[in-house]
Amino acid sequence: MNMVLDTSVTLAWLYPAEVTPAIDALFERVITHGAVVPALWQIEIANSLTASLRHGKISRKERDAALKNLSNLNIYAENESSRRAWSDTLALADRHNLTVHDGVYLELAMRLKLPLATLDRDLRRAAEQEKVLLLGV
Fold first, then answer.
1. d(CA 62, CA 55)
2. Which of 6, 16, 19, 80 is the most exposed place for a label (fewest CB within 10 A)?
3. Is 72 exposed, middle or buried (0-12, 13-18, 19+ CB in 10 A)?
4. CATH number for the domain harbouring residue 126
5. Residue 62: which domain range?
6. Dist. CA 132–CA 126, nearest whole Å
7. DSSP label at 78?
């Protein structure tokens, strides 16, 4: 695993209108080397795709295909992040004025000493302040 992958980058890769050369290159790295995510990532992705389905932006077939494609990638969902939610993650969220959801990704990248792939502006700012290498954009 060579990076922590967040929801914003994943969704950009799934929606053709949001794909950029940088996102394509990042997912080539995921395909080749894998990525790590907190277990929350799976819930966030499923929720976002289901919201898009309900708002008529994608079909059920497209949602299910996206989830199948993601499940075929070497993406490891780790569980330690949930145990740190009320301690390390909450402290990071407070320090950087992040949502706790975003704090989970920052905590994971810091703990595993891996670069963070995100498009989220606030999370990128916090990662820079914590000296976490950033990927994406």
1. 13
2. 16
3. exposed
4. 3.40.50.1010
5. 4-135
6. 9
7. E
The whole-angstrom separation of Cα 123 and Cα 117 is 10
pTM of the model: 0.92
* pLDDT 10s digits, 12-69: 999 888 888 999 999 899 999 999 999 999 999 999 999 999 999 999 999 999 999 9
- DSSP H or E run through 94: helix 90-96
Residue with tokens 């070497």: 74
The amino acid present at 74, given as its one-letter code, is: N
Please name the helix (run of DSSP H) or strand (run of DSSP E) that holds residue 113, with its range, or none.
none
Based on the structure, what is the number of domains in the chain?
1
* Cβ-based neighbours of 80, under 8 Å, separated by 6 or more: 111
Q: Is the dihedral of CA 41, 44, 48, 54 positive or negative?
A: positive
